[in-house]
Design goal:
By secondary structure, the protein is of the alpha/beta class. The chain has 19 helices and 32 strands. The chain has an eight-stranded mixed sheet with strand order 12-11-8-6-7-14-15-25, with helices on both faces. A hairpin with a 3-residue loop joins β30 and β31. The structure holds adenosine-5'-monophosphate-propyl ester. Adenosine-5'-monophosphate-propyl ester binds at residues 261, 307-308, 383-386, 408-413, 434, 495-497, 509, 511-512, 518, 522-523.
Amino acid sequence: MAEKIESLLKEEGVYHPSDDFREKALVKDESIYSEDYEQFWKRAAEEVDWFEPYSELLDDSGAPFFKWYIGGKINIAYNCLDRHVNSWRKNKAAILWEGENGDRVVLTYYQLYREVNRFANALKGLGVKKGDRVTIYLGMVPEFPIAMLACAKIGAVHSIVFGGFSALALRERIEDSQSKIVITADGSYRRGKVVPLKENVDESLEGIDGVEKVVVVKRTGNEINFVDGRDIWWNDFIEGQSTELEAEHLDSEHPLFILYTSGTTGKPKGVVHVHGGYNVGTTITTKLIFDLKDEDVYWCTADIGWVTGHSYIIYGPLSLGATTLMYEGAPDYPSPGRWWDIIDRYGVNVFYTAPTAIRYFMRLGDEYIKKHSLSTLRLLGTVGEPINPEAWRWYYRTIGKENCPIVDTWWQTETGMIFITTLPGILPMKPGSAGKAFPGTEADILNENGESVGLNEGGYLVLKKPSPSMLRTIYGDPDRYVNVYWSKFKGCYLTGDGARKDEDGYFWILGRIDDVLNVSGHRIGTMELESALVAHPLVAEAAAVGKPHEIKGQAIVAFIVMKVGVIPGDELREEIREFMVKEIGSIAKPDEIHFVEKLPKTRSGKIMRRVIRAIAEGRIDVGDISTLEDESALDEIRKK
Ligand code: PRX
């Protein structure tokens, strides 16, 4: 497959940071790229506080089950809170929060610390112990980081499920993580409407055991069902709890969280991250890549339900003692000026968002943006998918006023921190390329035989060395961890992305080369979509593929064979779309559903997704079809 990858994005111009930015940047010296790997990670570890120092940097004796900072005792919540409370930052704003309806809350480090302690004490009172899993299913409310940090503080493991996931998707994650506690809200606001979070939780828990308590934040005030003895309001839960609590002294390898992400099978993977390495990795990258200084207001527009929110709204920025902004709602609510208004009102300096949002605003025209000054911005970032050069330049000109470097940051749920980007004070930017491997990491492009390919040749993007922030395993399935990431090429971590590397060592990401789609910067596996589609009682077979989409990057296209006797039509199409929302969530709603008589399959019965994808993308050459069982199936799909 690697040989077939062709680079689509061609380099268009090179941009340099301004002299002013360079002079003030935290990293000015390119020698950071030649720093010794071990030295780099030892120095990075000085950015966080340790209760007990580590004795050895890396233990690779059980590879690929790597261990970092051996013997060190640490707690990421301590680094995000206590250490700042014991410093001049005590009264500094930690979180600036704005609700979709205009509500505003500022939490200083001290206030956040006190709230976290109260909640952590309440969890302890309930018998939540070190290592116990707690599922968090919330909208973007201040209680969200409070709950996460409280878990971390007592050594409990949080498993956050994005609030846009359905009850069924939530149930699967609660069951897999064996959570005893679920933290949710009555509802969350999205475009002025209420998303019924608690109702979803109730549905997800029907018929399963194990969850002892559901803690409910009151946010939207909609009526909800309350299960006696199980459900408790957040405010009642923390009532009377002490605002002081010493952080657990945890082993650096103690698990911090599980976060589920899509892979190439029907079942999402529970990616496990640990306190020590993840704390070091997120802190050093936040500092150096976002060039974050104490006086900055930093805003990452992600949802905490995704890894970007974990690492770069909460853990990285708070560990650094930064001021991080959280916005609850939709980017264009009540008008497309909302984000730009927030930037001006809070004086945001560093802004981190996704290409899909950039393309969305680009298409709306500049009128909503011109009304705002955006003059406080000094650095911009993107994440989630390759950014097309046109959108990059629009972002640079219209949002950054040609005055802000852009860091295009490549990473994954599994890597925990950014791995490929440009350090903004020293490296030029090439629109469409994420940049170079971050110091202390090593990336390469391999062909099918595991050999490094030549410059600008496409291939498999791999990481040649482990780094402290990387996942430790897949929860409950260590074999899958080894098979998915460490088996294809000896000693290399397989990212699942295709890429090429140019003569300057810049990586150009070409997208996923496995059966995973990237819809609006979010990963969704085609197998996951297909197993949800065939769960519909009238569907016999299904194939899901991605198709380029102007705003979302990729759109989901489903080809469906109905059960015998079913007459498909628009009504059924809509029903199946809604069914997918119920099965997984809105991100799984197919943009197009085509009913067909049969799917193209190999003689051994495997759906030829590659061929379907080629047709959906409008390619004339669909590649090798010598193993195709029945060519008429292709003609049918072509017609659709
Ligand atoms: O394909 C890459 C794409 O997003 C995938 C990781 O998705 P997820 O684990 O959901 O994390 C998203 C946020 C970190 C990668 O395998 N991706 C992410 N960032 C970029 C990217 N592709 C190109 N350029 C990026 N900057």
